[in-house]
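2 proteins. here.
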Amino acid sequence: MSYIDPGTGSYYVELTLCVTDAGNQPVPGDTTTISLLDGTGSPLGTTHAATDTHGCFSGDVQPIGAGSNVQPASVTISDSSGGSTTLTVLLGAPLVRPPRNPLPTP
């Protein structure tokens, strides 16, 4: 879900993901690359997040700079194994909500 941070006026995406290996076992400490894209597929920002001891990451990913004012339409998540997935981002309700666990993108 995508929300607007009332403190900055910028969009952010609330994201929870888990990484598993070919045997469907959690991969703790896996570094993922998270790319935010607009409705045309143009990049808004990219960041990295590591999975916890259970192979999961939960946080709010927010573009900085010009990309922060554009509603993200999708996120692409990839890891060092070469696996990737693209997810559609929906607008949250209410749209304006403070981030709970921010992870800004460089």
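next one coming up
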Amino acid sequence: MIHNKKKAQAGFALLELIVAIALFMIFSTGMSGAAIGGYLTSLENARAVKTNAMIIESWEAIKSIRNAGWESFENGSQT
């Protein structure tokens, strides 16, 4: 009787280990996906900020040329 009880406990411990490993894999996969998604989002946001800064700078250059007049342009550079 004692021998069968030890076998049952050993089998149950193995089952618990398998379930624990499966849960760890599921949660670690989800956390990895979230971390990678956050990193990619931050890269995209950095690109958007740079793009917006370039657009604003270009717009300011266009307004400066407009205000100075096209006559001040000579050979592609402003005098």
